[in-house]
Design goal:
Elements lengths: L2 E4 L3 H13 L4 E5 L2 H10 L5 E5 L1 E2 L2 E2 L2 H5 L5 E6 L3 H6 L6 E4 L4 H14 L2 H6 L6 H8 L10 E6 L2 E6 L3 E7 L2 E6 L4 E4 L3 H7 L5 E3 L4 E4 L5 E4 L5 E4 L8 E3 L4 H8 L1
Parallel strand pairs: 1-2, 1-3, 3-6, 6-7
Antiparallel strand pairs: 4-5, 8-9, 10-11, 10-14, 11-12, 13-14, 15-16, 16-17
Length: 255
């Protein structure tokens, strides 16, 4: 079984690759744009399975299928509203709504393995109506943003609503949630991915290290080199500084 990922956000692609590895699914290639995918499909044997994001950096991924006759099964990975997804789900294996749940991922893989006969994967193109999908995507759909995190603590799982987050930060190649209870929890993601998963009106990436919610800001202090310093209720491990290139956007964000 050969598998590729088409996803423009490289951290998200790597995270999906790790999750697939836990299910013994090896990813042979990761593609990040429409142009790159068209070139790859034109010069390589098509895989059995594609994990396909809808919006890529240079356009909708359906443009790939206008140029190349894809002979692969497809599992959508997208942040579009679930009601829109139901409308074009019929001819795909499944869709996975971001952030991708590992249980849902395992179910999707099982569907592929049990419901799609191998000859069909090898010899036929799935009858997905990409033009219909594109027409539906021309209408605005509200993106679904993350409302909670599930973190592992020993043998236990803890659910953390986004309302309890004071900040998110990166440290020593790890990403952590700091809560209003003054506790830190390691999460299996990156700030780059989380920045896309959290509502932009509620959370702002003030620097490479910190992502903070509006409601957690206790005080804003003018800092050196035209920067700003954010005071949070309980987080005292380090100074939370709005980087100079982010100051203008931050001021717009806070209104």
């Amino acid at each position: 079984m050969t598998t590729i990922i088409i996803e423009d956000e490289k951290p998200a692609a790597r995270l999906l690759q790790r999750k697939l590895g836990k299910l013994n699914v090896a990813v042979s290639e990761m593609l990040h744009s429409v142009e790159e995918a068209i070139d790859w499909f034109s010069n390589n044997e098509h895989p059995d399975l594609i994990f396909l994001d809808i919006q890529l950096s240079d356009g909708l991924s359906f443009e790939i299928f206008e140029k190349v006759d894809i002979q692969s099964a497809i599992i959508f990975t997208t942040a579009y509203d679930e009601y829109a997804l139901k409308a074009f789900k019929l001819n795909s294996i499944d869709y996975l709504l971001k952030p991708i749940d590992e249980d849902d991922l395992e179910i999707a893989i099982s569907k592929f393995r049990t419901r799609i006969p191998k000859p069909a994967v090898e010899n036929k193109t799935l009858a997905i109506d990409f033009e219909e999908i594109k027409r539906m995507l021309s209408n605005p759909f509200e993106k679904i943003y993350k409302e909670r995190f599930t973190v592992k603590i020993g043998q236990h799982l803890k659910v953390i609503p986004v309302e309890e987050i004071e900040c998110l930060f990166s440290e020593n190649k790890g990403t952590y949630i700091h809560t209003i209870e003054n506790r830190n929890y390691l999460v299996d993601s990156t700030l780059e991915v989380l920045e896309q998963e959290l509502h932009p009106k509620q959370f702002f990436r003030v620097s490479r290290k910190y992502l903070i919610p509006m409601k957690a800001i206790k005080e804003i202090v003018v800092y050196s080199n035209s920067r700003l310093k954010i005071m949070l209720p309980t987080y005292k491990d380090d100074e939370v500084i709005v980087s100079r290139e982010k100051v203008t956007d931050f001021k717009t964000w806070i209104g």
